[in-house]
Automatic annotation (TrEMBL):
Lineage: Eukaryota, Viridiplantae, Streptophyta, Embryophyta, Tracheophyta
Gene Ontology MF annotations: nucleic acid binding
Name assigned to this protein: Retrotransposable element Tf2
GO BP annotation list: DNA integration
Domain of life: Eukaryota
Domain Integrase catalytic: 122-286
Organism: Cucumis melo var. makuwa (Oriental melon)
């Protein structure tokens, strides 16, 4: 998201003109614990550690645009947009403002379709014990040619929901997929304990053979392949396809440029089932916040 999105000087001036916030500040100056969840420090007001803006701030429209419409906002739904904003800033009535903004987004209305539950029963799989050991793998194919690419391999950690989006050229072989898996997954996370996919057994047999060839070993490993799906990767596929429609509909031959941003967006987005983001689960800390513009301690910008 854009550096310099939030000018602290403007925030300060607007808070000074807000009678309601000034009342809170006066209470805190008399008693630092006088207003629950609020803090007054370094000349700024905070609510639960988040910078407070006036509800009439002139910065709100650009904030809503950036947190929802940018490549990191991802044109997410209300909850995910609100959670991303609520982790960094606060103003009275923010939840309603975010809800209204998302509901009125024309790009979302044009490009989002109602998610339908796939037909048939999905066989539940045991919940993994550790993150980054058990993965699902699927492919989005038949995309418009973009930089020579027309397919995406979607690989998702079943526990943390961390996802990697890997672009491919069709037709791709088991060897090419194995090489990409080594480059993008194994190099970062190690050899998987299991892989869930609906690819046929012949493809999987060749895939695993090529994987060990790339590793330079003939040792066998008891990695389990599940030729089925638990529905997780299909959900991620839908998220990714919607993201690409929102950002690439007018330039369908440039969708490949959005993939790194799509991956970052997905992994830093709030997931209701985990009550946090994949980034937080894997790295043990929240995603990096916006870098707000304002005066530094020495008075310079």
């Amino acid at each position: 998201m854009a550096h310099g999105l939030l000018d602290i000087d403007i925030v300060t001036r607007e808070v000074e003109k807000d009678e309601e916030l000034q009342g809170i500040i006066e209470i805190l100056k008399e008693d630092p614990d006088g207003k629950a969840n609020y803090q007054w420090k370094a000349g700024n007001l905070f609510y639960k550690g988040r910078l407070v803006l006036s509800r009439k701030s002139t910065l709100i429209p650009s904030l809503l645009h950036t947190f929802h419409d940018s490549v990191l906002g991802g044109h997410s739904g209300f909850l995910r947009t609100y959670k991303r904003m609520n982790g960094e800033i606060h103003w009275m009535g923010m939840k309603n403002d975010v809800k209204k903004y998302v509901e009125q987004c024309e790009i979302c209305q044009r490009n989002k379709t109602e998610a339908l539950t796939p037909a048939g029963l999905l066989q539940p799989l045991p919940i993994p014990n550790l993150i980054l050991e058990d993965w699902t793998m699927d492919f989005i194919e038949g995309l418009p040619k973009a930089g020579g690419y027309d397919s995406i391999m979607v690989v998702v950690d079943r526990l943390s929901k961390m996802a990697h989006f890997i672009i491919l050229k069709h037709p791709f072989s088991a060897k090419q997929v194995a090489e990409k898996f080594v480059e993008e997954i194994i190099s970062k996370h190690g050899i998987p304990n299991s892989i869930v996919t609906d690819r046929d057994k012949v493809f999987l047999s060749h895939f695993w053979k090529e994987l060990f060839t790339a590793m330079g070993t003939s040792l066998k490993r008891s990695t389990a392949f599940h030729p089925q799906t638990d529905g997780q990767t299909e959900r991620v596929n839908r998220c990714l396809e919607t993201y690409l429609r929102c950002f690439c509909n007018e330039q369908p031959t440039k969708w490949h440029r959005c993939i790194p941003w799509a991956e970052l967006w997905y992994n830093t987005t709030f997931h209701a089932s985990a009550k946090t983001t994949p980034f937080q689960i894997v790295y043990g800390r929240p995603p990096p916040p916006l870098r707000f513009e304002g005066k530094s301690d020495d008075g310079t910008k």
